[in-house]
Each structure stands twice: as structure tokens, then as C-alpha cells.
């Protein structure tokens, strides 16, 4: 049961610096997605960021595992690197793993994802926004459910989550509690409440800069502060 005044929607903040991680936590984020280079959509964060955020931040910290920007089709060497990065993130106290892999036909690389999910366990796994590049989102969602993936981050295949709100709402209905749909992509204080109301998502995702202003705006909008 949600306590009076509490926000029933989990707010995840994507950060690529310790300053942003501290700002997001202070602003009221419920969870961090630790990354490097958010300019390319986020890649695996350095060990120092994972170590220091564990020391200084008390909210859960999911670690991005992605070896580079660009294509989500990974070479065998990159897959081995991702497996090593998952092991390192677990050692450094990550609360979850954010990752993904596509095949050369533009669908989910089932064989690679099986390995990544197995390596992450018992931590929860989020499939990142590579999902939005797939032509058949409902079909891809069924694949992720079969793989045992816990969450998928999506803007509904659109540029922003608000533009993809109808598709996100459809994914939430399709998921039916089997996998968590995390709405992300341009979410801010002006759009958060409408996005949640229009899609029925339980979790939203937004980038946080070192000033924490975006997360403060989202928290205020969803908690009516």
C-alpha cells in the first residue's frame, strides 16, 4: 500500500557522473541508472562511478552494460566484454543490470540475451532503448518475457515518450504484469503526470544533470509538491 503523500510511480534517473548521481538522489529519484556518455545513449560506466555511487548514494543503482555507442549488434568479443562488465558491476554492488543486444535482422538477439540475463542473475535485468529500434514492438515484448527480462525501457518507438504514449499504453496492457514497462524519452516535469495518466506505467526514466532540476520537476509533478 502506498503511504499518504508518496509517489506510486518509480522515478529512475540516468546519470553519467557522481555529481549527477548525488543530485538525482537529493531531488527524490527512486533509482539510478549509472552510465557513461549519455550523449550516445549511455555506455558502461567506469568502475570509479559505480564504486563511489555505492559509497555515497542510498537508493538502488542499476548499471548500464553497453560497450560502445552506435549499433546494438555486438561482435563475439563485445559480448565477452559485456559479460565481464556484468560480473564487475555485480562485484561493485549494482542493484540491477541494463543491457540489450539485437541480431543482424533487427530483432532481439535471443542467444546473446540468454547469456547476459544468466550472467546478471540474481539481479534484475532491464532491456534498454534498443527496443525502440525494433519494427515489431509487441512481438519483441513477447520475446523479452520469454527470456525472463524484468523491465524494458521504451518511448513506444517514437522520438519521445509522449509521442509514443499510445504505443506505451498498449505495451503496458500487453505486458499484464509479466514485465515492467519503463517509459523514457524526453520526460520532464511538464509531461510526467500526463504520461503516467495516459499510459498507466509504474516506472518512468529521465536523464539527470548535475543540477538535478529535471528530476526535481518530475518529482514535484507526480507528488503534487
What's a quick, concise take on this entry?
The protein has 225 residues and is α/β, with parallel strands linked by helices. The protein has one domain (10-223): TIM Barrel (Alpha-Beta Barrel), CATH 3.20.20. It contains 8 helices and 8 strands, in the order βαβαβαβαβαβαβαβα.
Biggest sheet overview: 8 strands, parallel, barrel
Q: What is the overall number of helices?
A: 8
Q: Roughly what percent helix? A: 25-40%
The helix-and-strand class reads: alpha/beta
The counted number of beta strands is: 8
Low-confidence stretches: 1-6
| Strand order of the biggest β-sheet | 1-2-3-4-5-6-7-8
Shape: globular
Query: Could you name the CATH class?
Result: Alpha Beta
Question: From the coordinates shown, what is the CATH architecture?
Answer: Alpha-Beta Barrel
Give me the CATH superfamily: Copper homeostasis (CutC) domain
Q: H/E series, N to C?
A: EHEHEHEHEHEHEHEH
At the fold tier of CATH, the topology name is TIM Barrel
Distance between the termini: 20 Å
Rounded to the nearest angstrom, the radius of gyration is: 16 Å
β-strand percent reads 15-25%
Total domain units:
1
Average residue pLDDT = 95
How is this fold's topology laid out?
Elements: E1 10-15, H1 18-27, E2 31-34, H2 47-56, E3 61-64, H3 76-91, E4 96-99, H4 110-120, E5 125-127, H5 137-147, E6 151-154, H6 165-175, E7 180-184, H7 192-199, E8 203-207, H8 213-223
Parallel strand pairs: 1-2, 1-8, 2-3, 3-4, 4-5, 5-6, 6-7, 7-8
Amino acid at each position: 500500500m502506498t503511504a499518504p503523500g508518496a509517489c506510486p510511480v518509480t522515478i529512475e534517473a540516468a546519470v553519467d557522473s557522481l555529481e549527477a548521481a548525488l543530485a538525482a538522489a537529493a531531488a527524490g529519484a527512486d533509482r539510478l541508472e549509472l552510465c557513461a556518455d549519455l550523449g550516445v545513449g549511455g555506455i558502461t560506466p567506469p568502475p570509479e562511478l559505480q564504486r563511489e555511487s555505492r559509497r555515497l548514494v542510498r537508493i538502488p543503482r542499476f548499471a548500464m552494460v553497453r560497450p560502445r555507442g552506435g549499433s546494438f549488434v555486438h561482435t563475439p568479443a563485445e559480448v565477452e566484454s559485456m559479460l565481464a562488465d556484468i560480473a564487475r558491476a555485480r562485484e561493485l554492488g549494482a542493484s540491477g543490470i541494463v543491457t540489450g543486444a539485437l541480431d543482424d535482422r533487427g530483432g532481439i538477439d535471443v542467444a546473446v540475451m540468454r547469456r547476459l540475463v544468466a550472467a546478471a542473475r540474481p539481479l534484475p535485468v532491464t532491456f534498454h532503448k534498443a527496443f525502440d529500434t525494433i519494427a515489431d514492438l509487441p512481438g519483441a515484448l513477447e520475446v523479452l518475457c520469454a527470456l525472463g527480462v524484468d523491465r524494458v525501457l521504451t518511448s513506444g518507438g517514437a522520438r519521445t515518450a509522449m509521442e509514443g504514449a499510445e504505443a506505451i499504453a498498449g505495451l503496458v496492457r500487453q505486458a499484464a504484469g509479466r514485465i515492467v514497462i519503463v517509459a523514457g524519452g524526453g520526460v520532464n516535469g511538464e509531461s510526467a503526470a500526463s504520461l503516467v495518466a495516459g499510459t498507466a506505467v509504474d516506472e518512468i526514466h529521465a536523464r539527470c544533470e548535475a543540477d538535478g532540476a529535471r528530476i526535481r520537476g518530475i518529482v514535484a509533478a507526480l507528488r503534487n509538491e
